[in-house]
Inverse folding.
């Protein structure tokens, strides 16, 4: 019954999305020319890929002049993720002749593949497709008025043996007025408990209220005018206890208190009463990857795209979220934020390869070892239970 309900919900949203697209598709455009840059074999043979991108090498794969809008991107690469980390292949995008990127992220997390894991992900603007998430797809519109460049940098420590790609775009004489520029930024942090005690649900006494967002995890910190359109959020929890009581706090145009203040992580991502125990995907939100261990131990990927409900700002936008209620949880968090701005702006530097390295998985065997240490600290009586 639950499966049938999920299917009905998915097709409801998909139908609404297609209806809007069809309305736009009826408009005949003037002075718009469809173009493509791809990795096809220029010799006419079937070696349709770039080859031998060494570790440490940067390769420009898209470099066009004039005005246009990228409409579709598709990537796949070899070898497989167990030999080539998608967490250490960096994609950077430069608009309007700038020498700084307005988009920069590891390629896996950008397209919805966290920690170099490989799994299926389906949303309206982004997807990771069969086989097992190896096809990386974007339908975000990416405008440029004075040229665009996309660069791949290999920081993986091993060679990219093959890189296949399509980048489909339209060329035009000039962009329509007030066309924004696409931005995306990757962040990662190991959060710590405020008082070195993981005091979720007030297990060890009252909590310390958090009204200002101090020490929240940072999803985006933007200067300028534009609108925020979504986030891929990657949570690695070392504990089976629920981590998602943390509120989302969004500060707009320099306000000291959140303009948008949520009620919990699961609520912002449109679920309820904890993280789902099964993958779920809809066009604008979902859980494509859930942990496979006890409780909330392990890795969970959550996404929400503000396609129908962009969040607008005039001078600044700061999106933060608590790690546990009132920031009491140690979590390995990563995210990719997506937004549009009135001009192509410089984004902050992303964490380096060492900082991006995923923390190791913790499983029942580790918990059993900790239990053994607790038993020893209590005298190691054979009947110790643990409560």
């Amino acid at each position: 019954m639950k499966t049938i309900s999920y299917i009905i919900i998915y097709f409801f949203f998909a139908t609404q999305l297609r209806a809007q697209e069809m309305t736009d598709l009826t408009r005949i455009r003037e002075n718009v020319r469809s173009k493509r840059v791809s990795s096809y074999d220029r010799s006419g043979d079937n070696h349709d890929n770039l080859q031998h991108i060494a570790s440490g090498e940067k390769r420009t794969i898209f470099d066009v002049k004039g005005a246009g809008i990228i409409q579709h991107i598709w990537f796949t690469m070899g070898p497989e993720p167990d030999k080539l980390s998608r967490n250490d292949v960096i994609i950077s995008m430069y608009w309007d002749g700038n020498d700084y990127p307005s988009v920069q992220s590891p390629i896996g997390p950008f397209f919805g593949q966290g920690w170099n894991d490989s799994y299926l992900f389906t949303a309206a603007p982004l997807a990771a497709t069969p086989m097992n998430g190896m096809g990386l797809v974007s339908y975000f519109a990416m405008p440029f008025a004075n040229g665009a460049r996309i660069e791949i940098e290999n920081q993986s420590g091993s060679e990219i043996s093959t890189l296949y790609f399509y980048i489909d775009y339209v060329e035009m004489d000039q962009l329509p007025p007030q066309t924004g520029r696409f931005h995306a930024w990757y962040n990662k942090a190991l959060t710590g408990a405020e008082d070195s005690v993981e005091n979720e649900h007030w297990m060890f006494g009252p909590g310390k209220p958090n009204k200002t967002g101090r020490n929240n995890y940072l999803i985006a910190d933007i200067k300028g005018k534009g609108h925020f359109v979504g986030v891929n959020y990657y949570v690695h929890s070392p504990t089976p206890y629920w981590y998602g009581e943390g509120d989302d706090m969004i500060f707009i145009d320099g306000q000291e208190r959140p303009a948008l203040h949520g009620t919990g992580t699961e609520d912002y991502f449109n679920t309820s009463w904890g993280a789902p125990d099964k993958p779920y995907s809809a066009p604008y939100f979902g859980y494509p990857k859930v942990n496979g261990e006890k409780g909330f131990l392990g890795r969970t990927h959550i996404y929400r795209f503000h396609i129908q409900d962009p969040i607008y700002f005039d001078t600044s936008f700061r999106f933060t979220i608590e790690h546990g209620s009132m920031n009491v949880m140690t979590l390995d968090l990563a995210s990719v934020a997506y937004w549009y701005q009135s001009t192509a702006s410089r984004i902050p530097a992303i964490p380096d390869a060492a900082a991006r390295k995923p923390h190791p998985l913790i499983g029942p065997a580790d918990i059993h070892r900790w239990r053994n240490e607790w038993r020893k600290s209590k005298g190691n009586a054979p009947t110790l239970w643990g409560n």
